[in-house]
Structure formats: C-alpha cells, structure tokens
C-alpha cells in the first residue's frame, strides 16, 4: 500500500496538497460529525424534528438538508441563549460578540471547537507525531473545511500561514506553500463559520475565485483527500466545479494525481480501488481510492516525498521574489546584484538565496547562543536550515555542560549526518538533568510545587520566582503550550533575557533552561521517532547497495 502511494506521488514533481475534512479530527480529537454537532444545540425540540422539517423543504436539493436544519436549530438556540438564565455567564463573556451582532449559535460552536482542539486521542499519539513531521518538507499546503485548530497546533502557527474564509483569500497574496486555507471558516473567528443555508448560499455565489485557485493546485500538484466520506457534498461541489473547467481528456490526466483516502473499519477492508464521481454535466472525475486502517502508512509514504529546504523558508523566498516581480521595489529584506540588460535574451544566471548581513558573513558556526534560543521558540528575525543548525551551530556552541534545545531540530532533520556526538549529548539528557543539586534536594524533602498555570503564576509572582518554581514542579503536569506562552510573555516583558548585545539578565541562564525544557516536553517523542526512522532508512540503503 505504501509503495503504491509513493508511486502516485512521484507522478508529479511538486509536493502534494492535503484536502482535509472532519473525519480526520473525529479520529484524532474525538470531534462529532456535522449531525452530531447540530444535536448539541437542539434546545427546544429533538434533532429529528429539525432534520425532518429541513428534509421536506429540500427534496430537490438534498445537499442543503443539514444547512437548512442548522437554520432552524440556530433560531431556537439563539432565542434560548438570550432568555434563559443558564447562559447568563456566557452572555457576559461574549458581550463584544453580541454587540457585533455575531450569532450566539456560531460563537458557542467556536468555543466548543477551541476547547476540543486540545483533546488529542491517546491511542493516536504516534500517528499524530508522524502527521506533524510531514509539515516540514513534505507537503505544499492544506485546504480544509474544518473549524478546529488541529492543523495549527500540529504544524505551528509560526510555520504555516493560515487564511480564514474566502475573503482572506480574495485580498491576500498566497504562495501555495506552507499555507492552510480554511475555506469554511475557523473557530478563532466565529463570524467566519459556514454552517447554515445563508452561509452556504453566499459561499457558493463567491466561489468562482476559490474554484480557480483550487483548479491551479489540481493541475500542478498531487491532491490527497483525507477525512471525507465519498458522498460529502463539499467535495462533490468542488469536484463538480473542477469538471466544468476541463475536458474529458484533461480529467483523465488528473486521475494519477488524485488520491482519496478512506478509513477502513478493519484490516480486511484495506485495499486500492477506483473512485468515480459522476456529475449532471456529463463529466466524470476518477481517482485512486485507498482504504487504510492505519494512517501512518500514508504519512510514511508522504515522508519519502520531500524537498531539501523547510517549506517555511521556501514560502519566505517565494514571497520576496513575488514582491520583486510585482513592484520592482523590494523591501530592505531582499538584496539583488545583477547587470542583466533589458535586451538580453538568452543567458545563464544564478539566483542566490540566503540571509544577508551578519549571518551571511559569519555562517552557522558564528550563531550566538541567544540567537539559537530565539530561533527555537520562533522569535528570531532570521530563518535557518535545521540540518545546518545541528551539523555546524551545535558543535560550535558545545561546551560539555549546556543542554541545548535540539529536539525540534532533530525531529525535522533529514540525514543521519546531523546526529553527531555533540547533538546526541543533549539528546541523551533527561529533564531531570536540567535541575541543580539544590533543586533535587528540595523536591526530595518538600515535594513538588503545584503550579496549575505558569502564565498566571508569573503575573502574580514575577519572573525570578516563576522560573525557580518551574524547576520545582512535576514536569509531567506542565502543559508545553502554557510554558511557551510564559516564555514569550517573559521575553516581551524583559528582552534582555535573550539579548544578543548588552548586559545579560540575571535570570538569563535559567530562562534558557526553560526553553530547553519546553523543547523536551514538546519534541522528545517526535525526535526519537525521527532518529529511529533515519537509522532504519540508512540500514535499508546499505542493504540495497
């Protein structure tokens, strides 16, 4: 099965696009389907009442049954929301949303998805780690109809740029690399959520531009549909618009680049078949239909398909070059040296891409420790190559004592050459190795400090005490996102903590340890998995030779 997927992906030179539906987050976050979601907000009548009412109205358009049911459910829910006492606290919380005339139905749904986005199913932890890994160098971009934050939490908001709704796509320059297109809205912007019939009517009326962008992706890249049912109206609607733009021979050429992934109930259902989508315009779109019990098969196949550089870096390069072409007045971040004349017709030329200034002159062996820590938490103004960080920067910084935040770089590295002894020194250290003898003795005598929320603790007790108490806490109970929020907030309040120039902050050393601790909590599992994968691939290559 894996080899077949690899073969399909190899038919195109570009990285694949993921088209992700709600089935993926039902699997990983335990979220309900559309019907299950609507049931949560039926306050006056059972769901069946609303569904049957909508069904009678939409006999000629079955795709609109659920949006129409949402209309009726929303009307009753909003009435109850403004009149019943059980929503009193929620009304206070959402006073601003109410003043902006946002439907309570929508911002309550948004709250639901924000909360549920944190609840990863334990049985899929390893599978999810593999999914996270494909975001670095193995996929181009993602289109999704989901409202939740699973994708942002998986790939990092600083790694993938998210566009919410059609309006952001209309008025933004998109680069089709390291980007997420949330075409049905997102829980971070309740007003953007498309769920009722009015929303869908507007969406369809404004879909011409979206269809053209999707068509471009279809023609240039492999497309993997993941988390959709074969009868999903959203997919059928998009595929139909694609079919209207292409002739039958062109549609046939698409077949080898379209992959529809279905979840198999058991191993006996796994297999490959043809999936056909027939439309009333006489057109048919066919694609490979692959049923999988374990999605790690898909992810491991995608991991074989990669580019040399991080997609975040490629997006940055593309944006700067695009700016040059569009305006001919690039910003100070783009430097051009050329003597190409306007009438030159046939020449060979080189485009050199790199970081201008200090980094370009000094190289990776000249990176200061503070800059490395800033880069590790996504606060650096520069973009580095993770492999080179491991190969050059870490050995240069190595002093035999400091435990560096290397795990995220290891999780994203591509070759075993990165796993040198200086890197493995930090990899082989545990969270307890960050503690001083005094801290270990104190924990042994007094037990762990209870710190339920680090950010709140910091706001109450200040920097020095917070950092000290972090290392007196039970690391297993520390939420990585809470720790990172504290790190970024503390750095905003006290930039000297990682100042490259000038006098250092008194808590600088322990603050750096906080970053290393976060790196351990966040990336230990994926780093170990990447090391295993690299060593296995190395063994396979040796055996083949």
How does this structure look, described?
With 545 residues, the chain is of the alpha/beta class. The chain has four domains: 2-34 and 118-303, Rossmann fold, CATH 3.40.50; 35-110, no CATH class; 309-353, no CATH class; 431-544, no CATH class. The chain is 52% helix and 8% strand. The chain has helices at 2-10, 22-29, 34-39, 47-57, 65-83, 88-93, 95-99, 104-116, 125-137, 150-155, 165-170, 197-205, 207-220, 233-245, 248-254, 296-303, 311-327, 358-362, 369-376, 386-397, 407-412, 421-427, 437-446, 454-461, 463-470, 480-493, 508-544, and strands at 17-20, 141-144, 161-164, 179-182, 223-226, 258-263, 271-278, 284-292. An eight-stranded mixed sheet has the order 3-4-2-1-5-6-8-7. Strand 3, helix 11 and strand 4 (179-182) form a beta-alpha-beta unit. Helix 9 (125-137) runs parallel beside helix 16 (296-303), helix 24 (454-461) runs antiparallel to helix 25 and helix 26 (480-493) crosses helix 27. The two termini are 24 Å apart.
Annotation keywords:
545 residues, alpha/beta, Rossmann fold, 4 domains
